[in-house]
Amino acid sequence: MAAGGFLLVVVLLAVVAPLLLYALVRAEHDGRETMDRQSAERAARRDTQETRASHGDRRNPDDTQSDDPRAR
């Protein structure tokens, strides 16, 4: 009898956990901010500049040199 109850709990968790995960991901998807391409590029550049400044990178943001070793 106890084994049957344990099996029932395991089966319920196997069904409920993916549905809960799906609901959480769906809720995150519904709350996302949409923007046009130009706004997205501006936001991405702003994030990059803030990251460089917070890591102590003092290079000129207009510098055309690449950090990619393949570009050399």
The overall average pLDDT, rounded, is 79
Proportion of beta-strand residues: under 5%
> Which consecutive residue ranges, at least 5 long each, have pLDDT under 50?
none
Structural class: mainly alpha
The helix/strand order is HH
Radius of gyration: 24 Å
Coarse morphology: elongated
For the largest beta-sheet, the strand count, sense and barrel status come to: none
- Total number of helical segments? 2
Q: What is the CA-CA span between the terminal residues?
A: 70 Å
Helix content: 55-70%
- Count of DSSP E strands? 0
Quick structural gist:
With 72 residues, the protein is mostly helical. 65% of the residues lie in helices and 0% in strands.
Secondary structure layout:
Blueprint: H1 2-30, H2 37-54
Which features does this protein show?
about 70 residues, elongated, mainly alpha, 2 helices, single chain, about 0% strand
What do you see in this structure?
The protein has two helices and no strands. The protein is mostly helical and 72 residues long. The longest helix has 29 residues, at 2-30. It is elongated and about 65 Å long. The N and C termini lie far apart (70 Å).
